[in-house]
Design brief:
Order of helices and strands: HEHEEEEHEHHHEHEHEHEEEEEEEEEEEE
Strand order of the largest sheet: 5-2-6-1-7-8-9
Strand content: 15-25%
Largest sheet: 7 strands, mixed
Radius of gyration: 26 Å
Number of helices: 9
Distance between the termini: 42 Å
Length: 497
């Protein structure tokens, strides 16, 4: 063991030295209990008794966007919603994206509600997300009664794909606004602050504090066709969502629904073959079949004939089931989580009075001391101060940053260390206080792209498993006093004070 410790500290010497609310146990942006929003009063139907801390791995969240068929076709008094659609398992939730009155009940932005349709806006109709969520809950609850499914729907009938693009939405909005025949479309974009992409991502960031984003559902293409330019825009949107939400593409499939093809009638007849080519740009794409999904009858065009654009109520139900079955197949093929793996609650990760806290995790720390009143740690020649989670694990993979802040700049040879091993073996990620920001009082470790060990691994790339961290702490080489302020996880990068 001493030999291993020696290797660790010898390697640590090669790093130059840098750098937490008044409560040392504070975790910034800690997710609220499942079903609650971040720091707001919530009278929605979402559950949660306030006893569950952190992200709920049983709460699966799906982002949905597109045009009228994802919005839910509605015209006049017709919205496709029938009595059978009005009874919903409360484990299926929708996050409200725009405020309004749903059947006389006010819904607020950023809150979860039982997913009684319509899901998109109060004047829209039944859509594939309805029976996607119902089917997911029904099937997944057979083996996991704690499962919940949430959807976030941002859709605009008639909108081209550029309306959902991170940057192209500006020119698209202006084109629509300046054309008297399409100004109504810009007005609908205004419901989302003129920027549907930003609305979807903003709502998703709230949702990430409560559950796990498992996939992205899209139904669009009637306006644009599904050619090369369209496919590139779709790829851009997908990649931007992945990047802006710090998601892993291999764990976040894109589900693209086929256009209507009812007995060889509808735009899907010609466009669906091109739609499937999106896989060339987004490999993790699954195409959702529209086979057997029927057309709505009361949708005449200028010639009085059915336009064959929109699905019937049963068509939407069937298409939603197809989306669900596609996703269920994907989940069935994903690697199962490590059995028997016990995760430490997020709120307990950095408590100085917890069973996991040890100011002498590794090394000869016989002369080390900790003052809980001043948050001062007296190091010895070699040592690791921090939290050792024993036979449990810390899962910090849902956060973008780990931040350690100090009361004053640190000049000693010390820094932050993260291990996915139980012992101080030297195969760890280290960050030095000398590289700190905000005047040398803060170290920010970017977790969004994963971490690799940077000590004693030679040419071998050794990833730190952020779902199974064993030790988080501060290493030191040389005796000194380190004055801590706070240690926390956050999804928003801190800025200088």
């Amino acid at each position: 063991m001493k030999r291993l410790i020696y290797f660790f500290f010898a390697a640590a010497m090669m790093l130059s030295v840098a750098g937490c609310n008044d409560d040392p146990d504070f975790i910034k942006n800690a997710p609220p209990s499942s079903g609650e929003t971040d720091g707001t009063d919530d009278d929605s139907d979402a559950g949660g008794d306030g006893t569950v801390e952190g992200v709920d791995p049983n709460f699966q969240i799906y982002l949905c966007f597109g045009q009228s068929n994802m919005e839910g076709f509605a015209q006049g008094d017709y919205n496709g919603i029938e009595d059978i659609d009005k009874t919903v398992d409360e484990r299926f939730q929708v996050m409200n994206v725009v405020s309004g009155s749903w059947n006389g009940v006010q819904r607020e932005v950023g809150h979860w509600y039982t997913a009684v349709p319509p899901l998109c806006r109060s004047n829209t109709g039944l859509c594939p997300a309805d029976y996607f969520g119902r089917t997911m809950v029904e099937e997944l609850s057979k083996t996991n009664p704690d499962i919940k499914v949430g959807v976030i729907v941002v859709a605009i009938g008639g909108a081209g794909i550029r309306a959902f693009h991170k940057t192209e939405y500006v020119s698209y909005y202006n084109e629509m606004k300046n054309n008297p025949n399409s100004a109504w479309l810009a007005n609908t974009m205004d419901i989302y602050g003129g920027n549907p992409y930003a609305t979807l991502v903003d709502m998703a960031r709230i949702a990430q504090k409560q559950g796990v984003i498992k996939g992205i559902l899209m139904h669009q293409g009637e306006t644009d066709g599904c050619g090369p330019e369209w496919r590139q825009y779709v790829a851009d949107i997908y990649n931007d969502i992945i990047s802006d939400l710090s998601l892993k593409p291999e764990n976040t499939p894109l589900l693209v629904g086929e256009l209507l093809d009812d007995n060889n009638q509808g735009l899907g007849v010609d466009r669906n073959p091109d739609l499937s080519k999106i896989k060339e740009l987004v490999p993790n794409t699954s195409v959702v079949s529209s086979e057997g999904c029927t057309v709505v009858e009361n949708d005449p065009g200028e010639d009085g004939k059915n336009r064959y654009l929109h699905f019937s109520s049963e068509g939407y139900r069937e298409l939603g089931r197809h989306y669900a079955q596609t996703m269920l197949d994907i989940l069935a093929n994903q690697e199962p989580e490590q059995p028997g793996k016990e995760i430490v609650p997020i709120a307990d990760l950095f408590k100085f009075d917890s069973e996991y806290f040890d100011y002498a995790v590794g090394g000869d720390n016989s002369g080390a001391s900790w003052n809980p009143d001043t948050k001062e740690f007296q190091t010895t020649q070699y040592g690791v101060f921090g939290w050792h989670y024993g036979d449990k694990y810390a899962d910090i993979s849902s956060y973008n940053y780990l931040v350690v802040e100090l009361q004053e700049p640190q000049t000693a040879n010390a820094g932050v260390c993260i291990y996915s091993d139980s012992e101080i073996t030297g195969r760890s990620y280290l960050s030095s206080f000398s590289e700190g920001e905000n005047g040398g009082t803060r170290v920010v470790i970017d977790l969004s792209q994963g971490l690799n060990a940077n000590v004693n691994n030679g040419d071998e790339v050794i990833p730190i498993d952020l779902t199974s961290v064993k030790i988080i702490g501060t290493w030191s080489y040389g005796s000194s006093v380190i004055k801590f302020d706070k240690i926390y996880l956050t999804n928003e990068r801190p800025t200088d004070s």
